[in-house]
Amino acid sequence: MPEIHTHTFSNGLTLVAEPMVGVRSLAMTLLTPAGVARQPEPQQGVAPLLAELLTRGAGGSSSRDFNEALDTLGVHRSAGAGNRHLRLGATLVGEHLDAALPLLLSQALAPNLDANELEPSRDLCLQEIAALDDDPQRRAMIALREHHFPEPLGRPSDGVAEHLKALSIEDVRSFWQAGVVPGGSILSFAGQFDWDKLCDTVAALTADWSGQADEVQATKDAPRGYTHLEAQTEQAHIGLAYDAPADPDEQSMLQRAAVSVLSGGMSSRLFTEVREKRGLCYSVYASYAGMRDRGAVLGYAGTTTPRAQETLDVFVGELRRMSQGVEADELQRAMVGMKARLVMQGESSGARAGAIAADLYVHGRPRTLAELADRVDSVTLDDVNRYVAERVVKDITAVTIGPERLNFPE
Questions:
Q1: Which residue segments constitute the domains of the chain, with CATH numbers given?
Q2: Strand, coil or helix: what is 266?
Q3: One pLDDT digit (tens) per residue for the chain, 410 residues
């Protein structure tokens, strides 16, 4: 396997890059500490607003000229605010890197943050929040995170409408100055590149970039428990969450295996027991959310109002039944699915650029696909059954949306 290269510059920026044999594309991910958890309390929404403004011109070039230059180079790009980081992403043909990289990095280092672009950007952010009325599934999962994770780690990525309406361009500029800094930032590449040349180019482009951002800490415990959000609809939406190991924990792979048994495909337990056998819901799933300092399993079920209580009962019952163990064939299917997802990730430069950046933040180092595959192969039935027996699901955070409050199973 090709070596994954890493280098930390004197200003604190860490560069990580993975060569990919046989591809002409190159993907880039920049993670900076300006995530939603870092927003000042009365400015929830400044991070997604900044992410939108970063795409609207940089280095003195107007939004139109800036984006036309990148389009001419065939660069596909994205920007968004997550909990811990603001993310800039791009995919391009590797031979266009010299021309594209100064433009891409200028979004973070020298954005225009033009006052004339504030209102159009604000309107788009407010539309994202308004769209939640037509997407109760997403609304349920946002509320679930708010109730399960401590403040500010459970904040909604879209922000709060009232806060967004009050933000000024000076607020956005102050947030950019404090959060888009090299100390704590990770710049990753995957695909076709020359490592030595890449190092030199990044060093030259970021030589004048300075600043450091400390790690965000939890400041207030999560409410947890059961919360019902009333909505006069014919559907009911159920979100469930419980604690799991942090991603760097050795047991996190066992948790991933257990969740794959629960929700790894159309033969998984949740799909079979809740949807297929009983016909209770049109959608049901669970996923593992592994972070650097904590982890959780998040689940969702969408159903009709008359079947909501039974759906909740069976859903919780399946989560708790995991402690009784899994069968060999269930685990085998789950492991095959996990390996297949690794193979598909390995064929995408964009997926690998994002993965090694996340690894560097969460694990302190990038992990190769071979290492990840070895971890999957190391999982045994005895290990999984020992793990689920020791971690009986008890303290569940629940959020429901619908016309009626449900009775949460004891």
A1: 5-205 (3.30.830.10), 226-402 (3.30.830.10)
A2: coil
A3: 678 999 999 999 999 999 998 899 999 999 999 999 999 999 999 999 999 999 999 999 999 999 999 999 999 999 999 999 999 999 999 999 999 999 999 999 999 999 999 999 999 999 999 999 999 999 999 999 999 999 999 999 999 999 999 999 999 999 999 999 999 999 999 999 999 999 999 999 999 999 999 999 999 999 999 999 999 889 999 999 999 999 999 999 999 999 999 998 888 999 999 999 999 999 999 999 999 999 999 999 999 999 999 999 999 999 999 999 999 999 999 999 999 999 998 889 999 999 999 999 999 999 999 999 999 999 999 999 999 999 999 899 999 999 999 999 87
Classify each residue of 306-328 as buried b or exposed e, where b means 16 or more C-beta atoms within 10 Å of its C-beta.
ebbbebbebbbebbebbbeebee
The two structure tokens encoding residue 71? 């389009």
Alpha-carbon dihedral 247, 264, 144, 294, rounded to 10 degrees? -10
Distant-in-sequence, close-in-space partners of 376: CB < 8 Å, separation ≥ 6: 253, 335, 338, 339, 342
Q: How many of the other CB atoms lie within 10 Å of CB of 382?
A: 9
The helix (H) or strand (E) run that includes residue 257 is helix 252-263
- CB-based contact 270:286 (threshold 8 Å): yes
Answer whether 0.90 is exceeded by the pTM. yes
Place of tokens 């790894």: 264
Residue 87's nearest CA partner among 353, 293, 337 is: 353
Helix pair 328-346, 369-377: axis angle to 10 deg: 180
Q: Among 104, 106, 86, which residue's Cα sits nearest to residue 26? A: 104
Residue of 241, 181, 232 whose CA lies nearest to 31: 181
Q: Which two tokens stand for residue 122?
A: 């604000």
* Segment (H or E) for 363: helix 349-363
Place of tokens 């056998």: 277
Dist. CA 399–CA 154, nearest whole Å: 14
Listed residue (31, 20, 8, 91) closest to 369, CA to CA: 20
